[in-house]
Amino acid sequence: MTEVAQPMHRPPAVDKALKWPDMQALVAIHGRALVLECLRVALESWRQGHISDEADVLHAVQRQIEQLLAPSMRAVFNLTGTVLHTNLGRAPLPPEAIEAMTAVAVGASNLEFDLETGQRGDRDDHVEQWICRLTGAEAATVVNNNAAAVLLVLNALANRREVVVSRGELIEIGGSFRLPDIMARAGCKLHEVGATNRTHAKDYVEAIGPRTALLLKAHTSNYRIEGFSTALSEAQLAEIARAHQVPLMVDLGAGSLIDLQALGLPAEPVVSRVLQQGVDVVTFSGDKLLGGPQAGIIAGRADLIARIRKSPLKRALRCDKMTLAALEAVLRLYADPQTLVQRIPALRLLTRSQADIQSTAEQLLPRLQAWVGEALEVDVCAVSSQIGSGSLPLEVLPSAALRLRSRSANKRTRSRDLRTLAERLRQLPQPVIGRIADDSMLLDCRCLEHPETLLAQWVTEA
Ligand SMILES: *Cc1c(COP(=O)(O)O)cnc(C)c1O
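Output (structure tokens, whole complex):
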């Protein structure tokens, strides 16, 4: 009896499959280890009866390699309408910052080396003079983010001692940053004063005692207490702090280096003005209104900054060379007040006119309508963008969005259509993230300065 080949039932040996010319081609591109790993998975899948021939194996290996090697973190289009979106990476960086990061990333740099003296330098040196110049502070230091800045200042200045804070300012930001928790981790004892809505000067004065190390004011970035409320100004608090020889720290959160109101934006505390009121130390984020990389900036009195810099926690929370390079480049852009708003993307996007945004949306409309098909109705409508990152949640910026609505009369179908659309948008080569509101998908075009790239995707997908 002649033997009948039965290749369909039993998978080949690994060694044999690895020698297939097409498999060898994959090895040449991706290396033997990776191909072997995926091949074993594919052959197991054959054994279990899910696939049954050579072509299937090749296909499975190829797909698995692609999935493995696909970058997890990718560029997306932020059409949510929230400019400084924490989940989408906050501030976009200017080209100057990208170039500066690349320059130090490829090789050695003078990160902690003083080129003038040939001695060891401090990594803060690259940004400190700029921060001081732009805020009027005597000294400054930088750490990984603003939460770290708050932790570090509290620990360095008030470990095992008391910090006086108003009950109206015991903030939580983004769920994982709660002032009382950070304070406990910093080794400080929280001394709450006043009531949620009202805190008076005498509340602070009565709380100050021999164990008090610091007065803390936290900018209530992401909410506002309105109506019957009183909080002390920085100047009033500074007076109390000075009279009792206790330093005053203010956590500004976003903290702008320039007056946003002058740009037609809602007011946010300006760092230099806050320091002028007599505040001893401020902390603020590098990637919120400043428009730079993720960082926490600490600025204020030289003696306090020196103590903060000496803390072992500073070493643990310090920034890497790329962050410092990017931050320095962004701070340098602030040297020219005439051009900074145009050159710092976060500020440029925040100040973009509604007319300009609307024209972007209108330019996209026909191609989007063709891409989504007739089941969805597309138009351009006026919306409100938000600054984001906890800044000014009550204030909004007039903007324009592409609005997509299902034409179905059935509510369930409409909501399913929107979910399907959202998924399709997320699956684009450069995913598009919008927001769903009032039975429609809104694609706010504020952060879309170059619609060509998006238009190109809608063509290939159609
Ligand atoms: C955003 C914010 C923080 C945290 O800053 P990160 O840069 O996100 O670490 C802390 N305090 C306030 C008031 C904030 O607004």
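Residues 354-372 form the longest helix (19 residues).
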